[in-house]
Amino acid sequence: MGAQKKLFLGYKLRRLREQRGLTQATLAKALELSPSYLNQLENNQRPLTLPVLMRVSAMFEVELSSFLEDEDSRLVADLREALADPLFAGAPLTAAELRSAVGSSPELARRVLSLHQAYQKLHERVQSLADSLSNQEQGDSFAGPQFPYEEVRDYFHYCNNYIGPLDEAAEALWNTEKIHSGSLLNELAAYLKRRHDVRVKIVADEAGDTAMRSYDASTGTLRLSALLNGPSRAFHMANQIALLGYGDVIETLVEQAKFSSDDARSICRVGLANYFAGALVLPYRAFAAQARALRHDVEQLQSRFSASFEQVCHRLSTLQRPGARGLPFYFVRVDMAGNITKRHSATRFHFARFGGACPLWNVHEAFAQPGKILVQFAQMPDRATYISIARTVTKRGGAYLKPSRQFAVGLGCEASHAPELVYAAGIDIADMKAAVPIGVNCRLCERTDCQQRAFPPIGSELRVNEHHRSFVPYLFNQPGVPRPETG
Questions:
Q1: What is the mean pLDDT of the segment spanning 188-213?
Q2: Does 186 score more than 90 pLDDT?
Q3: Distance CA 367, CA 363 (A)
């Protein structure tokens, strides 16, 4: 057996102590430690031992899993990407330096990210304004409406995509009303009529209306497009239940988030209503139990809960309830142009805020084999390995002149969970040579030998020789190695 990994979690211990308003001397006495030893623990001069960790868990009433999980890794990854911007000159910071900065002051790191996002927004506005002026166009097209969406994405990102008040409320409603997945559509429609005096009407797209869902409060009518399949109709009915019955909970969460604009607040209300809908049609404990029993077989879970492939994948990524956590998954949805339209990660796997995704990732290959589940054993530059699946999903257009929309959905978890994942069957996770080397995207990837690289990483120093052509698109100078003479 190899040596156990030492746990240097002093910043978390210090944060817990400060949140409770305790002095080092008081905490040291409660943990039966000397003040000097506690001071060394908080400053990462000594690792936390298991006995001390158990005492900390009991005293502060925190779960060991939540204390041990690397919750700041998201912040480190986001900060690393922001600091890769050419705006920040100088040598790139090491992972250890970034982790130290985040551990010492996570709030300062968040403010640096907010400042960088404000800079990006201003830069986009100036660029759009310049384009508008050059085209002699009027209007406020340079307002940059995409940024409120990013702000809301960050909100869900740092909530670990688990919203406790809504998740628990949805599960309580499921249990109280004794809802069954096999008759979900009828039962949700009956509940809307009984509780809110709302009737559901399925309408054809005869007048060119593009609405999937439309609620008329004056007549108490919820109109759903006939183009929607069963799982989508159930989702939209559940969404309306959230807005009518749990609007106060949603409003409280929005206010607590302290968004910077009305647009962001409105977008978050929609996102929270969608979250409730997903939690209602796929109730937490029942769904989590079936997921484990079926080794997270998405197609079997679809059948058990009358849900779509995308709904099941997204719900698997939200099973992060304290005390009843499921497997940590990442979830992503990508369009045919490579744009990431939905993303979340409860794992160490991170998505880039700007730019595309790695071309070697199987989520892109899914478009070449529509409807087929593709499995990939992949390794990130930090050497973390993942079992990833990808499959296309199609949103019907409903007519010949209204083409369908196609996306690829990706779902994955760390390979260490392979025994609990049906898709790991036949994969030797110990064979690193079989792992596909992927990265976040070319802009941030540190791999120097990738033949698929589209452009060099920010901060790299290129080595160009007109008399030599490599299979690797870009060659880089190694630190401390002089440039080759040319000419």
A1: 86
A2: yes
A3: 8
